[in-house]
Amino acid sequence: MILNILSWNLNFIHDNYFERTQNINKILKKEIEKCHIMALQEAISPFSKIYKYIDSEKIKEYTHNEFFKEIDIITQYIQKLFPKKQQIIQGAFEFLMDKILYLIQIIYNKYGEYFKYLYFNYPKVAILLVLFFPFIFILCWFFIGMTTIIHKDIDAIVKCKYIEKMFQYTKFNFNQREIIFYNIHLTAGEKEFQKKKD
After folding, report:
1. How far is CA 190 from CA 8, 117, 119, 187, 194, in A?
2. Integer Cα distance of 42 and 65 in angstroms
3. Is the C-alpha dihedral spanning 113, 167, 66, 163 positive or negative?
4. In CA terms, which of 73, 124, 163, 175 is 20 to 30 Å from 67?
5. SS3 of residue 62 by DSSP
6. Shortest CA distance to 64 belongs to which of 148, 5, 140?
7. Could you report the per-residue pLDDT of 92-128, keeping only the tens digit for each?
8. Exposed/middle/buried for 145, CB within 10 Å: 0-12, 13-18, 19+?
9. What is the pLDDT of residues 62-90, one digit of tens each?
């Protein structure tokens, strides 16, 4: 049997965000019939974990934020400052962050491609936008993560690790062989203006 793997960078910043997310989910539901593992990068990763890409008993879904350590630090501070009301404060914080995510999605739904055009073609203008509107650009990185979807027939648990960059990994046996699988969000290749400098 061949191990079928799908890897897909979903491109968090994109026009028509909501419609596109629905289409992505439809494709994933079809592909899970053919694939043993699906590795998604730039996936939606809400603080409350209320969002799932595929609602199916056939799969196990593991999501981790790329800002994994930062979220852990926030959680630790909540536990330290509010030991008796930790669950209430944590729940309120997650609710607030989910609302912020929804607001960011609305903005990218309309202007996502325009922001990307500026980033790749006019990086200095993009830097100015980040400085003047940090809410839109910096906060979005808290919701970008990786999701590894594994078919239930594979006996594996996905873990997350940080070595200069966040990545997911899992070990399992397939066709009497030990498989080590990594899901990592790599940075983009050289931009055009960098190639011209060379």
Report:
1. 20, 15, 13, 9, 6
2. 9
3. negative
4. 124
5. strand
6. 148
7. 888 888 888 888 888 888 888 888 888 888 989 988 9
8. buried
9. 777 766 566 777 778 888 888 888 888 88
